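Listing S7. Sequence submitted for prediction.
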Amino acid sequence: MKFLVLFLGICLLSSPLSAMELKSNEGKDYGKIDAELKAISVLGAKSNGYDPKTGTAYLVKLKYSTPYWNHLQLGIGFYNAGDLFGLTDFDSGEKVARGLFVTNDGSEKSLMGEGYLCYNREKFTVDLGRQLYQTPLTTITYNTMPNFHTAFGVSTTALSDFEFSLAQVTEMSFGARAMTDYGLIGEGTGTAGAAVNPSLIGQAEFHKISKITLGEGAPDTRGITVFSATYSGFKKTRISLWNYYAYDIANNFLLQGDMGFPVKGCTLKLAAQYLRQQDVGDSLAGELDFNLFGVKAALQGEKWLVYWAYNNSSGDTEMLNAWGGDPAYTSSIFSRNEYRKRVNACKIGFKYNILRNLAFMASYANYGKSESIGKIAGVGSDLTALTNARETDLILVYKPAKGLTVKLFYANRTSEYDGSNGRDLTQGHTRIIASYKF
């Protein structure tokens, strides 16, 4: 199956129809094909029994969208991910990059992650079905197989300068990086996009929201009702309000805004955010009392960008971050400690365009010791924070041709639990990612 899907992807690469809308010589519209091939390899990492040292994975995406007929469109997307040509050594005793795969042994697995019907007429849109549901608390960084949600929603721009949306999310499918979100980034705290161990309930499979949040045996709920309102009536300013009501679990309220204006030949961008979470109904996840405040400032020139960001979390608990969300300003490649209990987080970074198709990025983040308890698998006891968490990321991005991106990055990270129970929880991780979208 793996080689069949790869073969189909290579065939699409050579097809003149693959990079464009499907149209006949007479101009008749037959829809559109979106496809992507991606390969990821861990080149090396510090040997500490914690950081994955090996792992090479692939993703193949094939998606077809029909043309609109009476304002209706159907979209179907198939995704296949696994160990690329068996290059990952699962028998070496080293900790493999489990977050690259959706199975424990790296075997390939396919999923129809997108299967939706869309109705679009003037300033009114309805979406029904499986989709990449892109909102602040459901969108997160992914590598191979992404997270998907089953959602039924409506949005409108009928009012000038306003956009409103209302949706019901009933299911979610964990992608490959959900294992990294839970185990490495979240360290068992439930704060990094996955609140339960994804491998225990099954990845690349759709589950009810209550199961995704609480694990096997969770009572069924009515999912999550999502409401949003966005105002863009002020020049170069955007203000958004989001509310996620997860029945019998939690209510999440997010307010954020950003604006930009010229400053001596540059552009200054300012942003602020406030996130509030509290338990509701039967409080199936227990008491939840979490606040997150954030500000960000960025100065952008013709070939460069520098920024500073700050987040502060408060309240009696950490955030239950279960549905794949990451709206905070201070997140790094392997760190999202700002969602833990009572943390001051600061991040600085810059980007420089060396050439038209070559860019270098660097960032440093520092997260104050939290009051959250880590529960890393295999440790045998809880972990308490002993030091500030820190992460330095160096990234080189090269785009040699249209649709082709090669990314090389190095991440150096120290966990706030470093030294707890005698564990060395530091990282030095190098990875290369190549993707082709057409």
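Caption to Listing S7: primary sequence and predicted structure tokens for the chain studied. DSSP finds four helices and 20 strands in the chain. The two ends are 22 Å apart (CA to CA).
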